[in-house]
Amino acid sequence: MIEERTLPHFQVEPGQITKEEGLMLYEDMVLGRLFEDKCAEMYYRGKMFGFVHLYNGQEAVSTGVIKAMRPDEDYVSSTYRDHVHALSAGVPAREVMAELFGKATGCSKGRGGSMHMFSEPHHLLGGYAFVAEGIPVATGAAFAAKYRKDALGDPSADQVTACFFGDGACNNGQFFECLNMAALWKLPILYVVENNKWAIGMAHERATSQPEIYKKASVFGMAGVEVDGMDVLAVRAVAQEAIARARAGEGPTLIEALTYRFRGHSLADPDELRSKEEKEFWFPRDPIKKLAAYLTEHNLAEAEELKAIDHRIQEVINDAVRFAEESPEPNPNELYRYIFAED
Fold this sequence. Notes:
By secondary structure, the protein is α/β, with parallel strands linked by helices. The protein has one domain (about 1-5, about 15-325): 3-Layer(aba) Sandwich (Rossmann fold), CATH 3.40.50.970. Helices cover about 40% and strands about 10% of the residues. Strands 2-1-3-4-8-7 form a 6-stranded parallel beta sheet, with helices on both faces. The chain has a two-stranded antiparallel ribbon with strand order 5-6. Strand 3, helix 6 and strand 4 form a beta-alpha-beta unit. The chain is globular, with a radius of gyration of 19 Å. The protein starts with 18 loop residues before the first helix and ends in a 17-residue tail after the last helix.
């Protein structure tokens, strides 16, 4: 069980993070949390349909990795739990909410919904409903950057790709095939495993012969690291090192972030499989509260400053809902548009 594994200890010394950086990380995590809370409200009010998988509890992973990357330049590949990855990548809350409402103003023009967020301007390669489906797509993006730089001599092609997926994907053949290729060709990619202990209703330890996923990197001769996925500063430090290695041509990194989702698998999940004891172990490790405590304890922020951010972000979320509600439905006459590339 993950709770029986010692969570990696990490401590950022005072002076290693600025106030501006700390507040930026806090704001991004709060944006993700409050956005997902509003999604739950809208879903139960009948404003959203289909499957909606929320990210509550895992915000430190998205923020820690994506905010260490170059905005609108580096690439991000997600899963069906993709709203917060989209937000961290810079997709406006309005566009993400409108997509969830199935509106034409959504980032996928209302065609993707909860599980298929996509934004070309923000280099968001998509959310993928099938487990491990995004891994080869992300590997392809990393290969494209490598090819443009090495074979075509384009010095600006130094983009790094971050590929997010869950522990369940790590028993899928695409995981092993793509890690092999990435290591062989030294592709600039971070494979980020968000190990939240559960693959829908399957406990991680029951599904794999090697529960410590980061150790699988050694088979391919690539760097593998385990990190406390409830600590945004730890995730960020690990990501910064992996990104620097990737951009320098030193190849991929497999990052296993030990994290936990605070809600069920989806909003249709009664969440009866996980034990009370397990939840009580993880809930006090809320990554947002942990960062807030760090910022105040090290005099990087006042409690009132953090509350002001909370209120401001709530207004952003409320505005996103109003925008989504007032946006038009997709035009039925364009049902077959965007299937093929347009001139």
